[in-house]
Amino acid sequence: MDILQELIKNENLATVPEPQLQWLVDQGEIIHLQDGDYVFKKDDPVDYLWIVLEGRMRLYHVQNNEQRLLEDNGKGYIGGLLPYSRLKTATGNAMAVGDTTLLRLHRSQFREMIETQDELVEVLVHLMLNRVRNFTKVQQQNEKMISLGKLSAGLAHELNNPASAVVRSATALKKQLGIVPEKLKALMSIQMTSEQVDQLSTVLLDKLNGADQRQLSLMEKSAREDELADWLEEHNVNNSFEIAETLVDYNFTTDDLDVIGTSVPEQSLTPVLDWVTNVLASTRLVGEIAEASERIANLVGSIKEYSHMDGGGDKKKVSLRDGLESTLRILRHKLKSKNISVQLDLPPELPELCVRPGELNQVWTNLIDNAIDALPEGGKINVEAVQDREFVTVHVIDNGSGIPEDITSMIFDPFFTTKEIGKGSGLGLEIVQTIVQQHKGQVKVHSQPGRTEFSVCLPIE
Which pTM value belongs to this model? Predict the structure, then answer.
């Protein structure tokens, strides 16, 4: 193999003069590997620049003793140690695929290369910067997709419950309104004076307007149903137990039935009370539909508030409380799934912050989501805020097991994570730190068993 000709044909090195490529050949070393041989392993010293001349090199990221494929690079790939790189040890494994030939250059040759091979160094530095930029962009996108997946699952669950309630109540309401002709005929044939109608209407409207709001216990409700059913049976009302069950929901008593009984002839009590319970049941179903629809609207509003879909990326003054509350609503399903309680303690006089709201909500999401993941069943999260002159500091505190002291200093490092593959890329806290720093703020962590506190300090203006 003519090594120099292989380098001349390498697109990455197209602008490098031939004498500098010859220097690379002269100073480098040719390595031949068979399929499955390791080029390097995780935690090995990174001492070589690598160029693939034949075959392939596969790169794996090792995370919690699991391997995730990062790149599969063929002929012409340049990697490993590059000029001015601060990389000391490998964060993953590299393996040969098929018979593979590599040119490698040891770091001891880098000083001479930097001093004498200008175009070669320029190309390699440019290659390193592009690779770091692209790799970081991909990993950040992966982190966003992981976060989006978590939020989407929670939102789907939160939206499904009220949506199902609307469908269920609407179906029941449709059935409830389907009055059979016999009942309508019996109702229309009743002869009542206007005073009797007013008396009946007064009782019904009082119940619909919630004149008696007292909530009955389960035992009280059961006893009340029996009392009403007995009254109805004594007055020869059909479907007495079904009617009694509906009347109890609106706190009807036997006294109320006595009032109705004085207004309506006994032979007409069944159609009248059928109509009354129909109105009550329909009203309740309409209320359930309204409540579920309002919940859906609130969730949609939370999503809009969380993402600030109707705003640009510019800074603007926003309420810290609104951002935190919308974030908690977005994460409510995940909180409920672990029975985690959240205490939001914000002073009412807290000033608005001049921030990019969507980015700041991403900070709260990452911190609270991490706290949820770290907590056992029934854990607690406190979110507090205090103002100190021209700054506001938000504290996110959980009562989990804490962060081990030996990794506390690394948790803001890119790609550092204790989560399983697919559950985190190790960029969540790095993104938090980047966003906070872009807002001229600071984020710190203090952790011990039973208390982990992340503090985000932000300028008001």
Answer: 0.45
